[in-house]
């Protein structure tokens, strides 16, 4: 693997924009499939992730969040919720985390330095299982989870906020004092309901939209540090 530290907002080094790639054929593909494939082919973060050995373009989101908020420290225990395909776990390992545990309903190919558990984070027994595997509490809980979208913006927004609330409840059970929490939400107002419990539980709570998030996407991240315990 040739994963790099990825400093800065652009994975392409600020060079000239590449020529647009067109699909050779649309035969047998739905319009939605054509749009997704064309976007992938012309996404500099997708190309950079492949070139640098990251599992997905999402790795650059965590790189930028860590550069800005200094989330990952050497030797810390990191829990990656919704870890598939493993990009965020890769970043945590590469940036010096001592123990990295990923959890997902989908199987994940091995990442050197990380361990993955196949299961549902909403399982009532999961916090205890993860603490056993981590050999203690987590120092950082990451969640890039998102539900399957319906295409209805208001519904999708409410669903992802509900998922973030579950991730927060889960984090409050497994975090060590001083720990941090990161979760994806969509802009739309309902994410404000997360702020009250987060401000009670953490010293600092902020919002961020990494450059690696697509411009047309309403996603942003809540970043909480200084868990009060």
UniProtKB/TrEMBL annotation:
Its EC number is 2.1.1.166. GO terms for molecular function: rRNA (uridine-2'-O-)-methyltransferase activity. It comes from the Bacteria. The active site is at 184 (proton acceptor). Residues 54-227 form the Ribosomal RNA methyltransferase FtsJ domain. Signal peptide: none annotated. Keywords: Cytoplasm, Methyltransferase, rRNA processing, S-adenosyl-L-methionine, Transferase. It comes from Rhodovastum atsumiense. It catalyses: uridine(2552) in 23S rRNA + S-adenosyl-L-methionine = 2'-O-methyluridine(2552) in 23S rRNA + S-adenosyl-L-homocysteine + H(+). S-adenosyl-L-methionine binds at residues 86, 88, 104, 120, 144. The keyword S-adenosyl-L-methionine applies. This is Ribosomal RNA large subunit methyltransferase E. Residues 1-20 are annotated as: Disordered. Belongs to the class I-like SAM-binding methyltransferase superfamily. RNA methyltransferase RlmE family. It is found in: Cytoplasm. Its main location: cytoplasm. It holds the Pfam family FtsJ. Specifically methylates the uridine in position 2552 of 23S rRNA at the 2'-O position of the ribose in the fully assembled 50S ribosomal subunit. The gene is rlmE. GO terms for cellular component: cytoplasm. InterPro entries: RNA_methyltr_RlmE (IPR050082), RNA_MeTrfase_FtsJ_dom (IPR002877), rRNA-MeTfrase_E (IPR015507), SAM-dependent_MTases_sf (IPR029063).
């Amino acid at each position: 693997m040739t994963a790099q530290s990825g400093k800065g907002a652009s994975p392409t080094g600020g060079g000239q924009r590449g020529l647009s790639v067109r699909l050779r054929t649309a035969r047998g593909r739905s319009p939605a499939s054509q749009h997704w494939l064309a976007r992938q082919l012309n996404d500099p973060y997708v190309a950079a992730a492949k070139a640098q050995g990251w599992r997905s373009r999402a790795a650059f989101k965590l790189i930028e969040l860590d550069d800005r908020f200094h989330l990952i420290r050497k030797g810390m225990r990191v829990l990656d919720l919704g870890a598939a395909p493993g990009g965020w776990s890769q970043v945590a390992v590469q940036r010096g985390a001592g123990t990295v545990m990923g959890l997902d309903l989908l199987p994940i190919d091995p990442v050197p330095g990380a361990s993955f558990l196949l299961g549902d984070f909403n399982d009532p027994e999961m916090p205890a299982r993860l603490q056993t595997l981590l050999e203690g509490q987590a120092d950082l809980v990451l969640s890039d989870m998102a539900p399957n979208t319906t295409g209805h913006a208001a519904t999708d927004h409410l669903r992802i906020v509900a998922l973030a609330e579950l991730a927060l409840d889960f984090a409050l059970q497994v975090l060590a004092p001083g720990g941090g929490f990161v979760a994806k939400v969509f802009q739309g107002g309902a994410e404000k309901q997360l702020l009250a419990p987060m401000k009670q539980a953490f010293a600092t709570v902020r919002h961020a939209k990494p450059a690696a998030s697509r411009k047309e996407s309403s996603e942003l991240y809540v970043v909480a540090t200084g868990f009060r315990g």
